[in-house]
What does this fold into?
Amino acid sequence: MKHLYRFIPGDIRFGVASTGLTLLLACGGGNDPVGPEGKSGPVTVTLPDSVSPSWMAYQDGDGAWKTLTGSHGTYTFQVTSGDGRYGVALGLANPLDNGTTEYVAQVFQASRTEMKSLTYGGPSTHPATVSGTVTGIPAGEYTSAHLKLNGGMVSGGAFTIATDTGINDVFVKSGLSFESPARYYLQRGVNITSDTTLPAIDLASSGATPAQAPMAVTGLNGATGTFYLLYLSPNGTWPSLNYGNTAGSATGYVLPAGMRASGDLYYLGAQEGTRFGYKVTNLSEATPTVDLPTAVVSNLQVSLVPNPTRGRLQWNAVAGTSFYTLWASQPQTAGTATCDVAATAGWLGGAGTLQYTQPDFTGVAGYNLNWLFSTLAPAELQVVSYTYSDGWTPGNTRTSFKAGDACRYSWQNATVTPVGGTQQRLAAPKSRRQPRDLRAPAMGKAE
It folds into this structure.
């Protein structure tokens, strides 16, 4: 199995990576203002037993990366840089299904005024398996069942879903298409303590027809985009309700009035090309509206720097960005090398032309050339700009959505090809890799 730990905030449910395991960061507070405005001082990194990196490293300011050591899953280093900037990195060797290995350098760079402690979390184990049956399904309709972030199609009137123990909301929907569901069922507050079989669900007698609510997307600039609507239940069940194309207006299939309760939220997302936005609403607005970004990642360039030879990315800053992620991947003889970076605007800077140089981990205990990109072979690149309405960054302690939360992000993909010397040529991307909102449930079709 392929395992990839990602920088995901708050509760592990907020980021389920498509590759399996996840990585969360939680920002630590504390009152230890050593140096101007508390910029200097300790940073603590905590790992659970399930995370076993091949190596770990830290960086103080723009200094050399050094081996990060600790015990019992706790690692501490000192930031002495006058601006409080630092970096944390870990190396993972993930076996792939094809028998090769993906060598992942996972990097996070921030300033100490933004966060003083990082907590990495292992995978959600989904310790309970829930089974059930659904009757009263009209002929020809697709039906799916959902608990927490997991869901599955109802086949032959039955479903089985892995979920977390604790209080769950059980949601079932049915319809002739995923774009326009015809019936919802919701049972709130089901306490799942172990593997269990739910009582039979009769959609004919217990289901209800969805209500329709007008919604809108701005910033399409005459193009046709795609909208997505998810229901966010108070107990963490987040099914996709409906989706479709939009030229600006959209219809959301929301819970009928008799099914609603305090705390219900909806996540309205929209995409056009390499631009995405979302808005969280409690339906108090007459027409919930999501705004697509107008400023986008642009002018991506790549060059090489010596000693040792590494790649350097350059792009135009996007005003108001909370943080950027940078990703690169390259097939190699031993498998695949991947570098996955999250860097706050406080670390990179907020205006003008931004640059990021692939870290030099030479000398870090456990690091070897399997994690180093070759300058003689093509690589896939991606730069993403995230702007959150509340300034959220990976590391923020808030672990829930609230009405009014909004995010806009844009990205640029490219393939870099060496052309000799220090010259690198950018071409149209071979990869269609699409980023995702790090604080949101997985986007996609209403399954």
The first strand starts at residue 7 and ends at 9. Residues 203-206 form the longest helix (4 residues). The mean pLDDT is 84.
